[in-house]
Design brief:
This protein is mostly helical. The protein contains 14 helices and 2 strands. It has one domain. Helix content is 57%, strand content 1%.
Length: 390
C-alpha cells in the first residue's frame, strides 16, 4: 500500500476542507491576466531571441548573452502558459468557455497540446482509478528499476517530432479510416506518463471538439511547412530548430516536475483520498527556481489531490492555512518536500532500495503488463472528489 500508517483513518478531510472553505472560488480576471501576460510576453521574447542579431550586432558576447536571457525568459513564460492546461480541465466548463478557447488558440494549438489531449487527467483524480492500470498519469516508479526514470527523462528529445507526426501526418489518415482513427484516439491522443494507457472512446459531442482541435493543429503545421517556402522564399529551418530546442526545455521542466509530484509507491490497488494525498508531494518552498518549475500552483500537488477544485491562485494561501491550523502531527505535513531535487532523490533511493530487496527475495517487483482494453465501470470523465466538484 501507499502507506502502512494506522493513522490514515484519523485524518479528517472534512476538517481540512472547513479550514480552506473560503478558497474555492476561481477569479476569472486572475486567470485571464496571468495567462495573457505569460503567453504574449513569451511570444515577444521568442521573437527577440531570433532577431537579437539585428538589434545588437556588437559586441558579440553581449548579443549572445541577451539571446540566452531571452531564450530563458521564453521557456519560463511558455512553461507557465502551457501549465494552464491543468487548470483548463478542472475549471467549470460554462463559466470559463471563452478562456478555454483562447488558451487553445494562443497556446494549446501552437504547442501541439490542445486541451482534449489532457482531458483524461480527470481519471487521475478518481478514487477507484488513481494509481491503477487505468490511470495513464501514474507509473509506480518507486517500485520499478531506476533505468525506467532515465527512459522517462529522455522524452523531451523524441516527443516533439512524434507530436508533429501525430497532427501533420496521422490526423488526416484518421479522417479516411475510422478504425485507424479509433486506434489513434486510444493510443496517441493523451498527455500521459504510461505509454500502455488506452484512452476511452469519445462520445459524438466530444469527438466534434477533438476533430476541431485536430484540424487546427494540422493547419498550423501545414502553414509552417508551406507559407515560408511558397510566400517568403525560404525554408523555416531556423524557426523549427528554435521551436524544437524550446520544446525540449519545456518538456524537461515538465518531466522533472512530474517526477516530483508523487511518491509513486502505489501497488496498483484502489486507495482512499487520504492515501492519494500521502502518495503526493507539496514542494513547500518559495525559491524562484521551484516556482518556475512548478507554475500555476503545481507545487501544491498533494493539496490539489485533496481538493481538485481549489483554484491555483488560492493554493498557496490554503496551504499556509492548513499548516497553521492542522495539528503539529497531522499527516498533511508528511506531504511536504523542500525542493524538486530532494523529492526526485528520494524517489531514486526508493527505487534502488526496492530493487535491492527484490533481488534478495524480500519484495516483489510489480508486473509490467499491457493495459486493459476494457475500462472499469467507474471510468468516466466526472471526478467525484472531496471538494464537491467533478
Amino acid at each position: 500500500m501507499i502507506t502502512h500508517s494506522s493513522r490514515v483513518t484519523e485524518f479528517s478531510l472534512a476538517e481540512a476542507r472547513a479550514i480552506v472553505r473560503d478558497q474555492f472560488q476561481p477569479k476569472a480576471w486572475i486567470y485571464w491576466t496571468d495567462f495573457l501576460v505569460s503567453i504574449l510576453v513569451g511570444h515577444a521574447c521568442y521573437a527577440l531571441t531570433r532577431r537579437m542579431g539585428a538589434i545588437v550586432a556588437d559586441p558579440l558576447w553581449l548579443r549572445y548573452a541577451l539571446q540566452v536571457l531571452c531564450f530563458a525568459a521564453t521557456c519560463a513564460l511558455y512553461f507557465r502558459a502551457a501549465s494552464f492546461i491543468h487548470e483548463v480541465v478542472h475549471l467549470p466548463e460554462r463559466k470559463f468557455r471563452a478562456f478555454r478557447f483562447v488558451w487553445n488558440l494562443l497556446c494549446g494549438i501552437p504547442f501541439l497540446m490542445p486541451s482534449f489531449t489532457y482531458q483524461t487527467h480527470l481519471e487521475h483524480h478518481r478514487r477507484k482509478l488513481y494509481g491503477t492500470d487505468h490511470d495513464g498519469e501514474y507509473l509506480a516508479l518507486g517500485r520499478m528499476p531506476p533505468w525506467v526514470m532515465l527512459v522517462y527523462l529522455s522524452q523531451p528529445l523524441w516527443v516533439p517530432p512524434l507530436a508533429v507526426l501525430r497532427f501533420l501526418v496521422l490526423t488526416p489518415l484518421t479522417w479516411i479510416s475510422p478504425a485507424f482513427g479509433r486506434w489513434i484516439h486510444q493510443r496517441a491522443s493523451s498527455l500521459v506518463m504510461d505509454p500502455r494507457y488506452l484512452r476511452p472512446l469519445p462520445t459524438p459531442q466530444e469527438m466534434r471538439i477533438i476533430r476541431l482541435q485536430e484540424v487546427m493543429c494540422f493547419l498550423w503545421l501545414l502553414g509552417i511547412a508551406v507559407v515560408p517556402p511558397v510566400f517568403l522564399g525560404r525554408w523555416p529551418i531556423p524557426f523549427v530548430i528554435h521551436g524544437y530546442l524550446t520544446a525540449v526545455v519545456l518538456l524537461t521542466f515538465n518531466c522533472l516536475r512530474t517526477m516530483a509530484a508523487h511518491r509513486f509507491w502505489s501497488e496498483g490497488h484502489e486507495v482512499t483520498f487520504v492515501e492519494q494525498m500521502l502518495d503526493s508531494v507539496n514542494i513547500d518552498s518559495r525559491s524562484p527556481l521551484e516556482m518556475i518549475l512548478n507554475p500555476v500552483g503545481l507545487r501544491f500537488h498533494a493539496l490539489h489531490h485533496m481538493f481538485p477544485s481549489l483554484p491555483y491562485h488560492n493554493l498557496a494561501k490554503a496551504h499556509r492555512k492548513l499548516m497553521q491550523e492542522l495539528p503539529a502531527d497531522s499527516l498533511y505535513r508528511q506531504t511536504n518536500e523542500p525542493s524538486i531535487a530532494v523529492a526526485i532523490a528520494k524517489l531514486w533511493r526508493r527505487s534502488v532500495e526496492f530493487q535491492r530487496e527484490s533481488q534478495a527475495g524480500m519484495a516483489e517487483t510489480p508486473e509490467i503488463k499491457p493495459r486493459s482494453t476494457t475500462p472499469p465501470e467507474a471510468r468516466s470523465t466526472t471526478v467525484p472528489s472531496p471538494s464537491g466538484r467533478g
